[in-house]
From TrEMBL:
<dbReference type="Pfam" id="PF00561">
    <property type="entry name" value="Abhydrolase_1"/>
</dbReference>
<feature type="domain" description="AB hydrolase-1">
    <location>
        <begin position="48"/>
        <end position="153"/>
    </location>
</feature>
<protein>
    <submittedName>
        <fullName>Haloalkane dehalogenase</fullName>
    </submittedName>
</protein>
<keyword id="KW-0378">Hydrolase</keyword>
<dbReference type="InterPro" id="IPR029058">
    <property type="entry name" value="AB_hydrolase_fold"/>
</dbReference>
<dbReference type="InterPro" id="IPR000073">
    <property type="entry name" value="AB_hydrolase_1"/>
</dbReference>
<dbReference type="InterPro" id="IPR051340">
    <property type="entry name" value="Haloalkane_dehalogenase"/>
</dbReference>
<dbReference type="InterPro" id="IPR000639">
    <property type="entry name" value="Epox_hydrolase-like"/>
</dbReference>
<dbReference type="GO" id="GO:0004301">
    <property type="term" value="F:epoxide hydrolase activity"/>
</dbReference>
């Protein structure tokens, strides 16, 4: 598997994100290895919170939330998905599959970090990957937070706005990641914040991951990932693992999933679930501090 690695100097002086990256090498499922990156905050002996980002962001998305969760005594772990952030970036679209992304995050969280008693926080693809981890490794998790995400099986049509996003990011001559993140927010970002989202992608050759991920979302019942996602749905619906559903009020892509999680997931029933107001798809950017406080309260209870 051929990969690119973003030069370190692209990540110098990122605003409010001075965490030292950590790295490990994982099997790439193609006879080689991939370097995968993550950042941590909080005490080493705190119960871990595994925070997974989505498309086309990276762990920088969680910079407003990490200090609040760490101050509450939790060990906060924010990986960069393969193809994003400081993690290696496969150069061929065919290198990216849903199953591989699940396995890469499983290997990092459990084989390398050996995390136990984990709370997942998953948004966008962070939920698509993370919810599979929860369903397939239930003994590792003690809580789940879903935030503007889903677990598509291809049995229900995706919203039209998602299809427009998929077409635009695949057809764009050059991907402006900061612009795509801003377009998914309700509040304006500073130029330095937008530059932080652009940092992992010096030019378009580094953008195979962002271009490819939308095509991996199951959109038909025959999709390669559909059966595994259906199985995960069944497992999660019956699971008693506590679940917090923390969706924003301004996400046209995944907003309809919030009530479904609350109704269908056993671990979500009987709980007060917050609505994050005046926030878009990237609610961590629009209202990260508020979302973090809701998670602290959820874990305290």
């Amino acid at each position: 598997m051929q990969t690119l690695r973003t030069p370190d100097d692209r990540f110098v002086d990122l605003p409010d994100f001075g965490y030292q990256p950590q790295f490990c090498d994982l099997d790439d499922d193609d006879g080689g290895t991939l370097r995968v990156a993550w950042v941590e905050g909080g005490p080493d002996d705190g119960d871990p919170i595994l925070m997974l980002h989505g498309e086309p962001s990276w762990s920088y998305l969680y910079r407003k939330m990490m200090p609040i969760l760490a101050e509450a005594g939790h060990r906060v772990i924010c990986p960069d998905l393969v193809g994003f952030g400081r993690s290696d970036k496969p150069t061929q679209a065919s290198d990216h599959t849903y199953a591989r992304h699940v396995e890469w995050m499983r290997a990092l969280a459990f084989d390398h970090l050996d995390l136990q008693n984990v709370t997942l926080v998953g948004q966008d693809w962070g939920g698509l990957i993370g919810l599979r981890l929860v369903a397939e490794n239930p003994d590792r998790f003690s809580g789940v937070v879903v935030a503007n995400t889903g677990l598509p099986t291809g049995d229900i049509p995706m919203p039209e706005i998602w299809w427009r996003f998929r077409e635009s990011i695949q057809a764009a001559p050059k991907i402006d990641v900061g612009w795509f993140v801003q377009s998914g927010c309700r509040k304006p970002m500073t130029d330095t914040a937008r530059a932080g989202y652009d940092a992992p992608f010096p030019d378009d050759s580094y953008c195979v991951g962002p271009r490819t991920m939308p095509s991996l979302v199951p959109t038909s019942p025959e999709d390669p990932a559909a059966a595994a996602n259906r199985s995960a749905w069944a497992t999660l619906c019956a699971s008693e693992t506590p679940m917090l559903v923390a969706f924003s009020d301004g996400d046209p892509i995944t907003g309809a999933m919030g009530p479904i999680f609350q109704r269908e997931m056993r671990g979500a029933r009987g709980r007060a679930h917050p609505v994050i107001h005046d926030a878009g798809h990237f609610l961590q950017e629009d209202a990260g501090e508020e979302l973090a406080r809701h998670i602290v309260e959820f874990l305290r209870r």
